From TrEMBL:
Its EC number is 3.2.2.31. Belongs to the Nth/MutY family. Keywords: 4Fe-4S, DNA damage, DNA repair, Glycosidase, Hydrolase, Iron, Iron-sulfur, Metal-binding. CDD domains: ENDO3c (cd00056), NUDIX_DNA_Glycosylase_C-MutY (cd03431). Adenine glycosylase active on G-A mispairs. MutY also corrects error-prone DNA synthesis past GO lesions which are due to the oxidatively damaged form of guanine: 7,8-dihydro-8-oxoguanine (8-oxo-dGTP). This is Adenine DNA glycosylase. The lineage of its organism: Bacteria, Pseudomonadati, Pseudomonadota, Alphaproteobacteria, Acetobacterales.
Length: 337
DNA sequence: AACGCGGGGCT
DNA sequence: AGCCCAGCGTT
């Protein structure tokens, strides 16, 4: 993990903070390349603060939860304005995008302040160590209490940074969600769930609600200079501030071709069916039908918030993963893949 | 307290 | 193809 300090090294608060924001709801493997890209584009928190928001959003494109990127930028500006990162949990907690978990993680890892950051890994370890049978999310306060108790151990208080990171490593490599390696666990002897044979079943969770389906149609329109028609989404909400192909709203009922046609950016273009892209969001699953066309001559409606993006500049665009796939599907149908 | 918010990895 | 994973901000 490139954000980790080596033995005897001091962790860089910028690196710790950046990695912790990226790691919210996102796996280590996914974060790695983005972390390196951000350090190369924005070597310091001041450089990140000074960058235009679109550049930050474009660099974040594909990581998801785009409010994190906007808060990251605002937080960099607040930190730069006050001359550096605060070194206590309480002050960190007041910054944009920093909640109780991240405040404790940065305080502990970057500044060696006592306190246990409670993420999903730590909740899992604690639920097993103390055999907490109540299901999440109701058990969350009890799990936080258990984690805090661990942090009060004198050995933990002596090395808060090492303790926090060791706890993450334990959850990631030994006390895993499925098939935990209890035989290898340094805490196998005090672990109550291990004794009861219930480690693999914990933490229990309330069943979650079903994900509804939604449908939409998106239009890929290419002009004779290989420029693509895009538009910007509203700044807040789903995929807020990111770019997208123009298209219909997303609703529960599928769209007929005739209904969708009313939303086409050029009524007379030779539209062809390019196929469907399916994408699962947190709270619904989307089937997006792609229709593609090449329009010789100028585009009639690059107005209304829409703009043209040359195909070879697409990597600098703030295109979320869903829209990257939609573009790829449309281009393939046009024979431009 | 409940809800909105992406994407990738594993089986 | 389906299941699993999981912090912060807003309301």
């Amino acid at each position: 993990m490139p954000w980790r300090a080596g033995p005897g090294e001091r962790a860089d608060p910028y690196h710790v903070w950046l990695s912790e924001i990226m790691l919210q709801q996102t796996t280590v493997a996914t974060v790695g390349p983005y972390f390196r890209k951000f350090l190369s584009l924005f070597p310091t928190v001041a450089a990140l603060a000074a960058a235009p928001e679109e550049r930050v959003m474009a660099a974040w494109a594909g990581l998801g939860y785009y409010a994190r990127a906007r808060n990251l930028h605002r937080c960099a500006q607040a930190v730069t304005a006050r001359g550096g990162f605060p070194d206590t949990e309480e002050e960190l907690r007041t910054l944009p995008g920093i909640g109780s978990y991240t405040a404790r993680a940065v305080a502990a890892i970057a500044f060696d302040r006592p306190g246990v950051p409670v993420d999903g890994n730590v909740e899992r370890v604690c639920s097993r160590l103390f055999a907490i049978e109540a299901p999440l999310p109701a058990s969350r306060p009890r799990l936080a209490e258990a984690a805090a108790r661990l942090g009060e151990d004198p050995a933990a208080r002596a090395h808060p940074s090492d303790f926090a990171q060791a706890l993450f490593d334990l959850g990631a490599t030994i006390c895993t969600p499925r098939r935990p390696a209890c035989a290898l666990c340094p805490w196998r002897s005090p672990c109550r769930a291990r004794a009861a044979g219930t480690a693999e079943e914990l933490p229990r969770k309330l069943p979650r609600a079903a994900r509804p389906d939604r449908h939409g149609t998106a239009f890929l329109l290419l002009d004779d200079e290989n420029r693509l028609l895009l538009r910007r989404r509203p700044p807040r909400g789903l995929l807020g501030g990111m770019s997208e192909l123009p298209g219909t709203p997303w609703r529960e009922a599928p769209w007929t071709a005739e209904e969708a046609q009313a939303f086409a950016p050029a009524a007379t273009a030779p539209w062809q069916e390019a196929g469907d892209v399916r994408h699962v969001f947190t709270h619904f699953a989307l089937t997006l039908r792609i229709r593609a066309a090449r329009l010789p001559g100028g585009l009639p409606s690059a107005a209304g918030g829409a703009f043209l993006c040359p195909l070879d500049a697409l990597e600098n665009e703030a295109l979320p993963t869903l829209m990257r796939r939609a573009v790829a599907t449309g281009l393939a149908a046009l024979g431009d893949a």
